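Thread: AraC family transcriptional regulator, structure

OP (GT): Posting the sequence first so everyone is looking at the same thing. Length is 328 residues per the record. Can we get the structure tokens written out before standup tomorrow? I want them in the notebook alongside the other entries.
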Amino acid sequence: MTEGSAPPAQAPGVVAFSTQDLPLEQRIELWESHNEDALIGLRCRTLTSAVLDATEINLQVSRVHLARVRGNSHVVERDTRMIQRRPSESVALFFSLVGEAFFYHDDGVRTLQPGQMLMCDADRPFMRGFSHGLEELVLKIPRSLFTEATGIDRVDQPRVVSFAAGTHAVAHTLATTVGRAARDADPEPVEEDTLLDLLAALTGNRERDTSAAHRAAAHTYIEQHLTDPNLSAENVAAAVGLSTRHLSRVFATAGTGFPRYVLGRRLDYARRLLEKPEATTLTVAEVAHHCGFASSAHFSSAFRTRFGETASDVRRRAASARSIRLDV
């Protein structure tokens, strides 16, 4: 979807709103009205004489609200009068995907880059600006539910966290979960408890069982670094904010150990690679190295144990299939 264009056919459970087909003189007014009802009440204005082109995908998940927002350059403000007239009673998390943004708050100005998340109390006055447009994800959670999930009573100061791949694995998993749910085509179902567990893990709440959230974040980090032969329990634990001992317990609750899980994922990846016709240009040793194995002998032995055949057998079938296709 291009910026400002109308969304495709609406997916079940998703509410889509666009300014594209609205009268030019009513776009800001109707955009403000939609946000006040569906997300967070904001006063909006465009930069210079630009016309507002914006879309919003909204999804309610039990008591939690998700959104995906796209738009051209503009500024939004939530002031004291608006908060008094219609309080949100919520905490908001903004995940920046496209476009640099500024956030003006009573304790200063923060600049948000793509790949960064900002968490704030939605009932404290703020101003946000997007000079080059934006695409962002939003997670809005009632303040009481936020406290229940995180153990944090108040968000007095905005908090910025990186959720880019390879940085904070829990934040990345939370952003990915919100993004897959709040999209206009083929949204993935998500449960409120999943979002709350990830939020609790993100904020370091030890009172809530966050094993599933930390395990999901660990899986995400492992997939991103699967081909790295130096991938270890220590760096995965650091990425998800756990000790290595706690990480081992998190994997054990799912019936496996960390080394076994990583080995399985690497072997599955290697088999998929070997089954591709183009993999015939690679040796088995090159496939092993590409999949993060330091030793080709260890790879060959583990592969045969798991699949009951050698990596060379799989590679040979792929080469034969490729030859047949070329001869047809």
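GT: Both are above now. Quick notes for whoever picks this up: The first strand starts at residue 15 and ends at 18. The radius of gyration is 24 Å.
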